[in-house]
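HUMAN:
Just now I want nothing more than another pair of eyes on a protein record. I would be glad if you read both lines and explained how they fit together. I have put the entry right below:
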Amino acid sequence: MTKLTDRFGREHDYLRISVTDRCNLRCLYCMPEEGMEFAPSSDLLSYGQIVEVVKAGAELGISKLRITGGEPLVRPGLDGLVRRLAAIPGIRDISLTTNGVLLADQAEALRDAGVNRVNISLDTLDPSRFKFIARRGDLKRVMAGIEASARVGFGPIKLNCVLLKGVNEDEIADFLRMAYEQPLHVRFIEYMPIGHADDNWKAHYLPLSHVLEIAQEQRLEVERIEDMLGNGPSEDYQIRGGKGSFGLIHPISDNFCKNCNRLRLTADGNIKPCLYWVDELSVKSALGNPTALRELYLRAMDIKPLNHEMAAKLLDENLSHEPTARRMSQIGG
């Protein structure tokens, strides 16, 4: 079987699938405050078309999937899609990234359909600050989603916390305490300039070395761990005696591209080799033709760059290529 190997020898077995660009929150690092113009439903891939694209990828070695958005749980019938994806030969792991607001009501159906693991966005433990960051929604519903995830047996349960300077860095110790006291896996993520690289991004950017400094101030004994289940670039740590763990995902301060094994399928039908750059390959003209779909995957390998250059953007240096103008919600997290 032909493998999805790029020009730099990286083998790709992981596809992140955005099912919608819509979201029930308006998080300040993901969307502008005024909101966005969402793609009409007619522009989005149908579930049948998504299955078709995944089947072609599975024939080339794609075995791990992550369902994303926007907020994937706002699209009706998601468990039906998961069930169809889980039935594709070669697919052995399906995970979900969600803001958690709708998760409590859907967790059991998604687990039964074939979702193994969940990542839940949680940038603050303070209800009023949640309103500031997300601009809408209710923290209680997210916490209910976390509880439901544990109840139905998702594992591990990862909490994604985007650190924002001047906004939530004073909660790092609280999140570390959560990772110590509960069997949860907190992942601190650097704020990325996806679709924007304005002064506001630079003002809120915080390198994740700060997390380890806080751990030291709290006199926590931490040690690196290497066996955390998942597909991402997280640098993971255990707090001695703790029930959970925490991880650092730092695309800016510590480029993680050398081990990249992922492609993205946008909700409107584009294979995206790299989150940061503008390059996309439309699948729509290849639908109904498995050979053409496989050729698109191979083409994505040919054009995938060695790395992104987000750190250069932070320093106002020239970039070698054109960054995407799409926001994170339009690409898929």
In short: Residues 14-331 form a domain with the TIM Barrel fold (CATH 3.20.20.70). The chain has a mean pLDDT of 87.
